[in-house]
Amino acid sequence: MNLLKRVASALVAGSAVFAILYLGARYEQQWVVGPLILFVAYPSALEYLQLMKRLGIRLAAPEFLVWIPVLTLSYIVFDGRYSDVVLLLAIAYQVLRYLGDLPHRTGLLQAVAGVFGLLYIPWLLQYFYLIYIGGAGQLPHVGAINALVVLLMVWGYDSGAYFIGSAIGRHKAFPTVSPSKTWEGIAGGFVFTVIGALVGASFSPVWREFVFWGGLPHVLLSSFLVGWAVQLGDVFASKLKRAAEVKDSGTFLPGHGGALDRIDGLLFALPVFYFYYHYVIRFL
């Protein structure tokens, strides 16, 4: 029953995401991804606050949450020209907000948690928008496939690691942090990451030409890097939840836990994908 709920909710959520990506590209209104990012970022930030609270770090919720939509919109409005300035203002506010709090150790931990939260969630999610709008000269439909490829890579890794690990997993990879993770599951995750990339690439002539005319080694290497990033993001979130003594970060998606549970691997994978395809091979 839990598996059916997990699959059903994933299909519904995935279909909604794909519809937004398609409509934004079809009508050349790529800003529609902004509300999608905010829809995920805000509940993730709420869950982050609750985790910090369980760790004994109490952040001023309104003064933290207000920066989530501000930062998200700053990456979209005016083509993101002022996003770095907004980020610096947000960081400065978090530091100044707790500067006078006593004892000093408490104030320091609050400031660090506030700054980290803004970098961990809205800042890392901005890379999804950068991937979606694509590189200079890329048409909107190509940008949509860029986003589709990275999503299928991440979801492929998660699915492969889960199903292969459940079926034949024997050797624990991170027994003290995430006991269910096995090396067999990780290997399966890498295989499904490559499959996800190839499936996503098949939807675009530009991507098909890239993959099947010399770009396959880049797909394999980037799948390896993205896969490890997904796993690192997942293990980091597991460590955070272990420290807070909770199983899930929330109940955002039936069968999948909280919003942060759903995007923990994606958060780390997005910058890896973007930097590889933008800076290394200049595809984006």
List the helices and strands and how they pair.
Elements lengths: L1 H25 L6 H22 L6 H5 L1 H8 L8 H15 L6 H30 L6 H29 L3 E3 L3 E5 H19 L3 H40 L14 H22 L4
Antiparallel strand pairs: 1-2
Helix pairs in contact: 1-7, 2-4, 2-6, 2-10, 4-5, 4-6, 5-6, 6-7, 6-10, 7-8, 7-9, 7-10, 8-9, 9-10
Q: Could you explain how this protein is built, in words?
A:
This protein is an all-alpha fold and 284 residues long. It has one domain. The chain has ten helices and two strands; from the N terminus they run H-H-H-H-H-H-H-E-E-H-H-H. A two-stranded antiparallel sheet has the order 1-2. Strand 1 and strand 2 form a beta hairpin. The radius of gyration is 19 Å and the shape is globular.
Short description:
With 284 residues, the protein is an all-alpha fold.
End-to-end separation in angstroms reads 41 Å
Alpha plus pi helix count: 10
Mean pLDDT: 92
Q: Please state how the strands of the largest beta sheet are arranged side by side.
A: 1-2
Q: Please tell me the total number of domains.
A: 1
In percent terms, what proportion of residues is strand? under 5%
Give the helices and strands as they follow along the chain: HHHHHHHEEHHH
Taking pLDDT < 50 over at least 5 consecutive residues as the criterion, the unreliable ranges are: none
Helix % is: over 70%
- What's the overall geometry? globular
Category by helix and strand content? mainly alpha
